Amino acid sequence: MTSVRKAKHGWALTLFFAVLSVIYVMPIIIVFINSFKKKIFISNRPFALPDAKSFVGLENYINGIEKIGFLQAFGYTLFITVCSVAVIILCTSMCAWYITRVKTKITATMYYLFAFSMIVPFQMVMFTLSKIADMLHLGNPIGIVIVYLGFGAGLAVFMFCGFVKSIPLEIEESAMIDGCTPVQTYFSIVFPVMKPTAISVAILEAMWVWNDYLLPYLVLDIKKYKTIPIAIQYLKGGYGSIDMGAMMAMIVLAIIPIIIFYTACQKYIIEGVVAGAVKG
In this predicted structure, what is the pLDDT of residue 5? Predict the structure, then answer.
């Protein structure tokens, strides 16, 4: 009887989470469907499938790419995302290794400051941030990478510190005995072991940077540099008119790369998050 109850309970949970997953995916499906429909049919029948009257093929995609300069915006977004994630992973992993291995009051204070930065609302610092970024001339794709490093460091350091605590210190000591410098020990021994957590951090940070609208809008010189979220807003015309077809098409093109990246790396997420949560 117990096994039968467990089986029924398992089927109920499976059905519940299946329905829940469909609900979460439904907005993406609706956006994809409407990206092939005429503007008037998107407003009148947003949940209907395209038919002979409403279907426009790739017209919305072509119009959207031409209107907002999608390829240029894609290039800027890709550059900012790749560079920001690479810098965050490199700098925060080294910082976490130092904080964990060097036990002083300074490193303890640094750790708590990084942890505290995760709970500070962005609205509290956005005015000061935009002012300082303007003073330091960071309103370009390279400068904003530094800004993203500051905002992304809190979570990354927290996860890396948890993982480093689980690495046996004897491995690093053996490398030192064999003649490795601290830099060689880090890149040859420590960083390769950090791979699951590094990939998890990369996924979380990439999804944030790729989809971010507010920070690039505040920091970048949007007359010269537009990321995809900013460029899509330019489909909004005067008096509140919006080319919904082109907007839906551009949203689809914007989410495809990050979905592919997430799907390719998702198997490392749970392993990395669990490893990064080790207290040691």
Answer: 59
